[in-house]
Write a sequence for this structure.
């Protein structure tokens, strides 16, 4: 390595530029790999901790599209799951729907003048996701943590009485922190909800007249299943009534979350349930994480393309620096050949210099990549609201470190190819005779 160190030491400016170029490419690769590893790892940890072992949906549902066709008999069908598979501990039907929410301040401003003229600029309704469920039927599932308020007060689903919507309504809703912040409400506040939006403030009076009044029973934390969304949670039948209007007759849901007593062989339980319910598609946790991987892979492919371009540029730059070094030391190389150094030894000298430059690039790029990665994590956590606890956008695992070392080795080996050929082709006699 003495020959390599001598070449690096004699040309500090050129060496610094080469190391910076390699370091930037390395930092880019590290940050991109850490980002994809972090998202995948966080999704996997949250899914495993969720208590959801199987997910039942309507047949031919695509997790990638996020489109869940209605699953009928939402109250009755899940209750029969344990009869088809004794390993089912919990089968909880959930309806996920889009609602529009309004608060009491907007209601008061709407009624203060004709046509909503008194509504301040910037005030309006808030669209959000709504989840309808049976709160007391989620044993074993990791549901949102209640941070304030009493939460749902009635067990079961009171409005669903003997297969009809004739039971009493509670009018209760639990909002996650993000939606509660947007609406500026807390426990005990009154809000309104409707599936319909309006184009202008002049329609607010009619919207409130037809919306459903609700009382905020609690404020919850973020939710693992629908991260970064503003969420409202209601009883299943009450969300069905709001979503379908007064004429609702179909008992429907979007999916059924299944918790198993023994989750060691979910594929067996999947087979039993799909055989018993041909109209359903039953997905294992592996299927769910596979769908997440497909989405992440799109971003990873784009990141790999950017990384490959950066590596190629760094390799070309390093190769150019090495070619200049070979040309500068042509007489030295000729002299070494003349006194007995073999062609293989000369090639090794150039390769060592290339690897040394790559190592210096790694020393510069690794800390930079770590800094970029942690900076991205902080930035994205601030930009993306409603993330569950424990979610991290970046992860510096051994795979990321191994990939960074592999990139450095690739740059060092590829960049040395042409300079080695140039060094071996140095004409000994001509260089020794040159002034």
């Amino acid at each position: 390595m003495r020959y390599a160190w001598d070449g690096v030491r004699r040309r500090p400016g050129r060496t610094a530029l080469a190391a910076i170029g390699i370091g930037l490419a390395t930092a880019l690769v590290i940050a991109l790999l850490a980002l994809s590893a972090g998202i995948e790892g966080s999704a996997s940890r949250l899914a495993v901790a969720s208590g959801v072992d199987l997910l039942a949906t309507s047949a031919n549902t695509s997790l990638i599209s996020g489109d869940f066709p209605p699953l009928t008999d939402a109250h009755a069908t899940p209750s029969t799951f344990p009869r088809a598979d004794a390993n089912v501990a919990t089968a909880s039907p959930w309806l996920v729907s889009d609602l529009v929410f309004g608060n009491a301040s907007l209601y008061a401003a709407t009624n203060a003048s004709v046509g909503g003229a008194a509504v301040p600029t910037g005030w309006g309704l808030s669209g959000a996701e709504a989840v309808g469920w049976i709160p007391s039927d989620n044993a074993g599932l990791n549901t949102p943590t209640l941070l304030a308020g009493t939460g749902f007060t009635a067990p079961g689903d009171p409005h669903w009485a003997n297969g009809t919507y004739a039971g009493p309504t509670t009018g209760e809703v639990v909002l996650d922190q993000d939606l509660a912040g947007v609406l500026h409400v807390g426990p005990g506040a009154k809000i309104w909800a409707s599936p319909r939006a309006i184009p202008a403030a002049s329609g607010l009076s009619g919207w409130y007249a037809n919306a459903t009044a609700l009382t905020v029973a609690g404020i919850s934390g973020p939710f693992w299943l629908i991260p970064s969304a503003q969420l409202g949670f209601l009883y299943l039948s009450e969300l069905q009534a709001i979503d379908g209007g007064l004429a609702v007759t179909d008992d429907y849901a979007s999916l059924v979350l299944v918790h198993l007593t023994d989750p060691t062989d979910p594929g067996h339980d999947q087979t039993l349930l799909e055989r018993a319910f041909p109209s359903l598609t039953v997905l294992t946790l592996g299927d769910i994480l596979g769908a997440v991987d497909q989405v992440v892979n799109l971003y990873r492919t784009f990141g790999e393309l950017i990384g490959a371009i950066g590596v190629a540029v760094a390799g070309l730059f390093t190769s150019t620096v090495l070619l200049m070094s070979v040309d500068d030391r042509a007489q030295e190389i000729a002299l070494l050949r003349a006194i007995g150094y073999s062609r293989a030894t000369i090639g090794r000298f150039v390769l060592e210099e290339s690897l040394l430059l790559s190592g210096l690039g790694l020393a510069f790029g690794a800390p930079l990549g770590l800094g970029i990665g942690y900076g991205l994590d902080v930035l994205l956590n601030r930009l993306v609201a409603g993330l569950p606890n424990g979610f991290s956008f970046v992860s510096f695992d051994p795979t990321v470190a191994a990939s960074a070392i592999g990139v450095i080795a690739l740059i060092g080996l590829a960049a040395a190819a042409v300079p080695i050929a140039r060094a071996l082709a140095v004409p000994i006699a001509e260089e020794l005779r040159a002034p």
In short: The chain has 14 helices and twelve strands. The two ends are 28 Å apart (CA to CA). The chain has two domains: 2-46+291-433, 52-262. The mean pLDDT is 82.
